[in-house]
Amino acid sequence: MEVDKKDEREAESSEQVVNPWEVSAKDGGKIDYDKLIDKFGCQRFDESLIDRVQRLTSRQPHVFLRRGVFFAHRDFNEILDAYEKGDKFYLYTGRGPSSEALHLGHLIPFMFTKYLQEAFKVPLVIQLTDDEKCMWKNLSVEESQRLARENAKDIIACGFDVTKTFIFSDFDYVGGAFYKNMVRVAKCVTLNKAMGIFGFSGEDHIGKLSFPPVQAVPSFPSSFPHLFPGKDNLRCLIPCAIDQDPYFRMTRDVAPRLGYSKPALIESSFFPALQGENGKMSASDPNSAIYVTDTAKDIKNKINRYAFSGGQDSVEKHRELGANLEVDIPVKYLSFFLEDDSELEHIKKEYGEGRMLTGEVKKRLTEVLTEMVERHRRARAAVTDEMVDAFMAVRPLPSMFE
Ligand code: TRP
C-alpha cells in the first residue's frame, strides 16, 4: 500500500503540475507553455490579435503583450468584436493576500490591468481573497484581513483610477447579490467535478471545497448591483496568471446554465525566480525574488549574487561563445521591465555574441529595477487610509466608461 502511494507520487512529480496552488515543471525543467495551452484548451495570442489591440486603442500595446508575457487567452477576440461595435466590458482581477510584501511577479497582473483599464477606458473590480488565504495558508481571519488591506495599498500604488475601480475583500463584501450568484454556481458543480478540476481529496477540509464559487462570481456583473445595475449582459475580461485558469474553466462551464455570458481571459506565464526558470520564487527564500520593499543595496546584491547567468565561465570563453540567452535571468528580467525595444535588442545581440559581459547586463538590470522599486515605494507611501477606504467603498462609479 505504502509502496503504491509512493510510486503514484513519483509518477506525478515527473509530469508538470499547474493549478492555483502548485506550479512545478516536469523533472525540474522549464514549464512547457504550449503543452499547457493544449491541456487547458485556451488560445495562443498571435501577432494579428496584438495588432488589433493597437488599432482599437490607438496606442502601442503594452510590453507584456509585445513580448509574450501575456501569451494565452479565451474569447479575447469576442471582447474586441463587441468593443469595436461600441460595447464596453469590465475587467476583473484579484490577489490572495498571503504575505505582507509583494515581489515583482505579484505586480505583473496589476501593471497589465492598469494598462488595459487606461487603454480601453473600462471599469475594474479587484477581489482580495482573504478568505482563500485564511483557509489555505492557515492564517487567522484577522491576519488575512489585515494583509488584504496592506496589499490593497500596493495595488493602489500601481496607479489605478479611483473613479473606475472597486477593490473588495471577500470577508467584507460577500453577501447579497454576490452570495446569490455563489449559490447558483455551487448548485451546478458536483463534488466529482470539483475534485477533477481542482484536485481536492477527501482529506481537504470543506472550506476549500466551498471556495471556487467565491472566485467565480465576480465574473458576473449582477454580483455588483451598485456598479452595474441593469447591465446583466456586460462582458467580463479577466487578466490573470495561467495558474488561475481552473477557477475560470469552471466559471465558463456553468455560466450558460445560469443565463450569463462566459468571462473572457487573458493569461500570463510565470515570472521566473532569480535562480533560473526551473527555480521557484518561494516565500521562504527571500533571495529567490526581488521584493517591492527591497533597498537599492538589496537589489544590487541579489542580482549580482543570485541571478542565474547564461554567460560563460571565463571572459575568453565568453568572448568566443557568447551568452546563452535562453537561460539567462538578467536578460529575461529586462525583457519584462526594460521598455525600450531597441535597447533590449541591442543588449541581446551584444551579450549573445560575447561583446557584452554578464556584469554589464546585471548593472543595467539593477538600474532598471531600482528605479521601478523606488517609484513603487514612493507611490505606496503616498497611499493613505482614506484612499484605501475610497477604493473599497461600496459605491457607484459614475464615470466608469469615460
Ligand atoms: N486566487 C488568486 C490568488 O491567490 C486571487 C484572485 C481572485 C484572482 N480572483 C482573481 C487572480 C481573478 C486573478 C484573477 O492570487
From TrEMBL:
It comes from the Eukaryota. It is found in: Cytoplasm. The keyword Cytoplasm applies. Keywords: Aminoacyl-tRNA synthetase, ATP-binding, Cytoplasm, Ligase, Nucleotide-binding, Protein biosynthesis. Its EC number is 6.1.1.2. Belongs to the class-I aminoacyl-tRNA synthetase family. GO terms for molecular function: ATP binding; tryptophan-tRNA ligase activity. GO terms for cellular component: cytoplasm. It holds the Pfam family tRNA-synt_1b. It comes from Arabidopsis thaliana x Arabidopsis arenosa. One of its GO terms (biological process) is tryptophanyl-tRNA aminoacylation. This is Tryptophan--tRNA ligase, cytoplasmic. Signal peptide: none annotated.
